[in-house]
Design goal:
This protein is an alpha/beta fold and 260 residues long. The protein has one domain (22-259): Rossmann fold (3-Layer(aba) Sandwich), CATH 3.40.50.300. The chain is 34% helix and 25% strand. It is built from 8 helices and 10 strands. A 6-stranded mixed beta sheet has the order 6-7-8-3-9-10, with helices on both faces. Strand 7, helix 6 (194-211) and strand 8 (214-218) form a beta-alpha-beta unit.
Length: 260
Amino acid sequence: MNVRGHTADPRPPADPRPPQDAAAAAFGLTKTYGSGDTAVRALRDVTVHFGRGTFTAVMGPSGSGKSTLMHCLAGLDRPSGGRVFIGERDITALTDRDLTRVRRDRIGFVFQSFNLVPTLTAAQNILLPLELAGRRVEPPRLAHVVDELQIRDRLDHRPSELSGGQQQRVAIARALVTEPDVLFADEPTGALDSRTAATLLNFLRTSCREHGQTVVMVTHDPIAASYADRALLLSDGRLVDELDRPSADTVLDAMRSLAA
């Protein structure tokens, strides 16, 4: 196996430092749920980094640890061992209060279920993270995001008045308007039709290539993964393969090899 950023010795160095171009990195990451005979090791010594301006798909069979990896990287779950960095900051060493600030100011997260506030308009949902942080909206940034996502004419509508694809684009706008270091997306196309999914994936790819955004996306869909610069494959909590410039066919072949 030849995985960029994955060392032969899974133990992290005493004082690991991420590469200079890394927007996010993990060293020797482990996560165990439960204890004793019922313990489940969801992650096993995962070391990886995500360069700035890159689009990475994270894939694997059900129970492989891909969502756990994303949640630990995004600071939504505490790892059992290892280190996680956002930029040069070690978020595993932070208090809950400081971690909340990092998530608010430097991380964007898009959930498959959208998580929009039903009583707020699309515009209010998009601006909610900035209001909670006491930050002013940058009008050019907001205009760019809503125009690129083609939702300007839906800003006064509440979620119940939007299609699934429009709700997902509002959720992505909410995550991007804060200009996060990293955007994490958990199955962002899972509830979308193929045409809307393609529009969304093209936008994410353009955000990386033209605007330097870093995107890490968990997906089960080989077609969605083919939009990424690389695909990481997990199995039984371990990082087992990496595909550069993946196509739907190469991803399918790699997934079949995991199931063999």
